[in-house]
Recover the amino acids of this structure.
């Protein structure tokens, strides 16, 4: 259950670098590495990318947002749902309550006096 809550609240971003139509690099935790076309754009002798041509490299960023609010207000629940929650909490709390009065049927009984220790005499000991 905790794993589901963790995964539903985490948001992350995936960065991707495309050179033309091919994916060069993709990263989940950092910046993507480029294909090196930026260096070639500055070079006037390049035939693939030059100043007159449109930039052939592109960066794409996909953000997946997690859930921000997890707490539901008790006032927003319907009447039947409020009664169910109240009854569930009441019965759940009563599961852990121990009985108040303990029956002690031996409170007026005193054990007989110990005349001799039979375990020591017979040398029988529980280990």
């Amino acid at each position: 259950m905790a794993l589901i809550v963790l995964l539903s609240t985490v948001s992350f971003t995936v960065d991707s670098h495309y050179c033309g139509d091919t994916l060069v690099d993709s990263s989940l935790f950092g910046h993507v590495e480029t294909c090196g076309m930026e260096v070639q754009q500055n070079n006037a002798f390049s035939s693939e990318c030059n100043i007159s041509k449109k930039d052939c490299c592109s960066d794409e960023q996909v953000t997946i947002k997690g859930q921000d609010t997890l707490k539901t207000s008790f006032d927003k629940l319907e009447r039947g749902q409020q009664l169910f929650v109240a009854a569930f909490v009441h019965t759940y709390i009563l599961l852990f309550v121990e009985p108040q009065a303990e029956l002690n049927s031996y409170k007026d009984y005193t054990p007989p006096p110990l005349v001799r220790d039979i375990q020591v005499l017979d040398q029988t000991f529980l280990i």
Observations:
- The chain has four helices and three strands.
- The beta strands are 12-19, 22-27, 57-64.
- The chain has a mean pLDDT of 78.
